Amino acid sequence: MIVLVIAATIAQTVFTNPRFQWGVVAQYFSTIQVLGGLLATIELTIVAMVIGIVLGTLLAVMRLSPNPLVAGISWLYIWFLRGTPVLVQILFWNFVSALFPDIGLGIPFGPTFIHANANSLIGPFVAAILALGLNEAAYMAEIVRAGIISVDPGQTEAAQALGMTRLQSMRRIVLPQAMRVIIPPTGNETISMLKTTSLVSVIAYSELLYSVQTIYNRTFQIIPLLMVAVIWYLIVTSVLTIGQFYIERHFARGTARELPPTPLQRLRGLLFTFHAPPAAPSALPPGTLGGPR
Amino acid sequence: MSGLMLRADKVCKSFGRLDVLCGVDLEVAPREVVCIIGPSGSGKSTFLRCINHLEKVSAGELWVDGELVGYRQAGGKLQELRDNEICRKRSEIGMVFQRFNLFPHMTVLQNVIEAPVRVKRQERGAAVDRARTLIDRVGLSDKLDWYPNQLSGGQQQRVAIARALAMEPKLMLFDEPTSALDPELVGEVLEVMRRLADDGMTMIVVTHEMGFAREVANRAVFMDGGVVVEEGEPRAFFASPQHPRTQQFLSKIL
Fold it and tell me: B1: pLDDT confidence band, cut at 50, 70 and 90?
């Protein structure tokens, strides 16, 4: 009851306070500039998460390697990238050309084969991707590692006893089972990443937040334009949440005897019971256990 | 060592300061069925795991089918084999675990064809055909597309045996295969093992099933304190054990 009252009060404020300027929200909600920013945000999220997941999985496997050097490199990477703020990393990658004006590929202290100017190679997009993706990898590595060690060691033993190599058993046996533990926090990370991309506005990359900032710097309609961003962030987050449900369901194979129904199936089930004729209570003799009360 | 399927020569294994195996000597001929019995902590399972190099021996030598397990002799020194060589040798030895260790995200059929397809690079169709035959032999041809957790313990262990057999091993290791089963499910697994023995498979079975040891095994081996205390033809072994520790152990469980 109290919750309802509070909810009603909030709803009243949101819809009747004229300073929200819902008209302005509607006006800018689907302009090219906002949609472009939204697209950039989604693109950043996807690319950064892909880098994070792939590199994070590699780091997790390295971290669990019996080779101390390989495990050590992974530990060092995670220590460094988790130990510094992501905002600092974004700024760092943006200004990395000041540190290394020339980027080349070659033998250390020997000849260089490929030369590139750092300034032209690392623009705001590349800087944003590097910063977000490499930072995410450090967190994903720990999530994947948690998933891997949650799998019964007997599984690795069985795979090894069949003659599978460490990588084969990791890819075919351990990781698919680790997924059940990895997916929920990864969904979390993806949603978190969607919002973290807004930090990239500091290096003037026009993702969603920077796009609305550019508009309100011109029109001074700060609140309604922030509302535009808020609503878009909520919409994309909701879509991601739904996606997560289906991915989790896919990896529950073989663990639950029966998979949880999808919302669609649940709806169908609900409709079906509505259409079903009500059970005839008279069929049961009065006083029977479980009969009508 | 010629002609022997397994030769263990003073095999020792310690975990830190804990000595689990202290010089195990054992020889197993091809087509022989050997049951290893003994109190828990006597090193039976560890010994079994050393045979396919799931554990590295600390000292002594293990030979399977004339080849040193896990190492190569180079100029009088032992060199550990590379991973892929260890894997290839493991693929020739089947192992069945106490807790089945089926892959829960794969169906019965997928469990059985996984290693033949991935490790032996068998063509998928051929692997499926062979898997069907094996699953039929353990009496589960109606459960091909079931997941392990939809099966009883006994059924899971029979699938695990079929999975090991799919690699066409020359030696089968059983690590207390019936210890995690409800009593009424033990029989079906022992029956499968009995038929396997009749078909001439070389088997080393760590077990607490004295009846099985007596009837199926060619030899019973009693381990205690990390060494083989006594071994012999099963009927004589169970009827009149020689060593006092064997007598003591058998008197408690028979």
Answer: very low
Does A158 reach chain B within 8 Å, measured CB to CB?
yes
pLDDT at position B116 is: 95
The answer to whether residue B234 scores a pLDDT higher than 70 is yes
B84 → closest Cβ in A159, A165, A177 = A165
Is residue B73 a contact partner of residue B81, using CB atoms and an 8 Å limit? no
Per residue in B180-210, pLDDT (tens digit) is 999 999 999 999 999 999 999 999 999 999 9
Residue A121 has pLDDT above 80, yes or no: no
Question: Do B114 and A163 lie within an 8 Å CB cutoff?
Answer: no
3 state DSSP class of B220? strand
Burial category of B11 from C-beta neighbours within 10 Å (exposed 0-12, middle 13-18, buried 19 and up): buried
CA-to-CA dists, residue A174 to A77, A246, A276, angstroms? 23, 21, 45
Angle, vertex CA A257, rays to CA A251 and CA A262, nearest 5: 60
Residues in A closer than 8 angstroms to B83, CB to CB, are 165-166
Contact yes or no for B70/B50 (Cβ under 8 A): no
Q: Is residue A228 a contact partner of residue A29, using CB atoms and an 8 Å limit?
A: yes
Query: Which member of B84, B107, B150 has the closest CB to residue A257?
Result: B150
Element (H, E) at B175: strand B171-175
Chain A residues whose CB is inside 8 A of the B102 CB are 158
Please name the residue of chain B whose CA is at the shortest distance from the CA of residue A257. B150
Task: Give the Cα separation of B193 and B205 in Å (integer).
Answer: 10
Whether chain B has a CB inside 8 Å of the CB on A259: the answer is no
Q: So what's the pLDDT on residue A286?
A: 45
> Please, which residues bridge with residue B68 across strands?
B63
ipTM: 0.91
Distance CA B172, CA B55 (A): 17
Placement of tokens 């055909």 in the chain: B129
- Residue contact A163–B150, C-beta within 8 A: no
User: What phi and psi values does residue A273 have, to the nearest 5 degrees?
Assistant: -70, -30
Determine the average pLDDT of the residues in B62-88.
85
A173 Cβ under 8 Å from any chain B Cβ? yes
> CA–CA separation, B29 vs A34, rounded Å?
78
CB contact burial A230-268 (16+ within 10 A = b; e otherwise): eebbeebeeebeeebeeebeebbbbeeeeeeeeeeeeee
Q: Is the model's pLDDT at A292 over the cut of 90?
A: no
Residue of B nearest to A152 (CA): B101
Please answer yes or no on whether B104 and A173 come within 8 Å at the CB atom. Answer: no
Domains observed in chain A: 21-106+113-254+261-267 (1.10.3720.10)
Terminus-to-terminus CA distance in chain B, angstroms?
35
